[in-house]
Amino acid sequence: MGEGELRGSLMDFWGVSQGFFGGVSQDFGVSPEPGRAPPTIRSPRLISGSWSGCCPPAASPSPPPHPKYPTPSGWSPPAGPPPELPYFVRRSRLHNLPVYEGQRQGRRLTELRRIHGDIWAAPQALQRDLRAFLGSLGVPEVPAQVNE
Q1: Which helix or strand (DSSP H or E) is residue 8 part of?
Q2: pTM: predicted TM-score of the whole model, two decimal places
Q3: Which residue of 63, 111, 135, 142 is surrounded by the most CB atoms within 10 Å?
């Protein structure tokens, strides 16, 4: 098929060449050529479940049970229910902790996001918990600041 034939067939497909858009009727609508039916327009149909692969899941699925723990990758389930604290740090959808490091005015900052619960009680409880953990590592003081 040559270039001219291809162009003609494409133009015929879209109703452009000498046909469908050729004349205008009295009511300013488009009238097809005599003996030629107007093209049918098909709307795309939504197949059930077709959007399921487009959006990421809202939450990660629960892990399947394993015969023994820790698994070969080193994962083991939590030991028990979380402790009763005035705050809760929600993990990301990929189970990562929302801890971010940055630098402002030459100082290294560590930012903890996605804190839920009583955010005004969280700095005192969080400082207490961080002092206990980081004190064993040799870090002297942990200042905290709430930023809504």
Answers
A1: helix 3-13
A2: 0.42
A3: 142
